[in-house]
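May I ask for whichever protein you like with its backbone structure tokens?
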Amino acid sequence: MGMQTGAHIVWDWNGTLFHDNDAIIGATNAAFAELGLAPITLERYRALYCVPVPKFYERLMGRLPTDAEWAVMDATFQRHYSVHRSRCALADGVTEL
């Protein structure tokens, strides 16, 4: 049997390999600010985060976001995350894996 070649797909669960926790919290809080919601801490984010993502927002807001709120939060999150992620790096020890 010869060596197999091919691509590997690596799934990074937020903050495991790519240290983007600050970008996620910053973008989430920017999205919340657009709707007049209070900011959250990383600890609260970690305690409540789940998939599907709308369930996470239901836990935070006490209800599911409306379609209009979801559109605002999604666009705001994506815009802010794109800016913040450029300052992120791999988590300690990842390059040695």
The first strand starts at residue 18 and ends at 19.
